[in-house]
Design goal:
The protein has helices at about 5-10, 15-30, 35-50. By secondary structure, it is mainly α. The chain is elongated.
Length: about 60
């Protein structure tokens, strides 16, 4: 068993970074909780999503 995020990464497909990490980052910042590791992970996934090989709809 793997997470959908893990399967998307392994297949080179775009991830649901905003739904997963974006929401946590927003909630943390709203509560004045620093979230540097979540922000770094989200940045990495956003870069992955922008790669030409991360084709949509596959």
């Amino acid at each position: 068993m793997t997470s959908s995020l893990s399967r998307e990464l392994a297949a080179g497909r775009p991830t649901e970074v905003e739904n997963l990490l974006g929401d946590l980052i927003h909630r943390g910042r709203a509560a004045d909780v620093p979230v540097p590791r979540l922000a770094a992970a989200a940045l990495t996934l956003r870069a992955h999503n922008r790669r030409p090989t991360a084709t949509r709809g596959n």
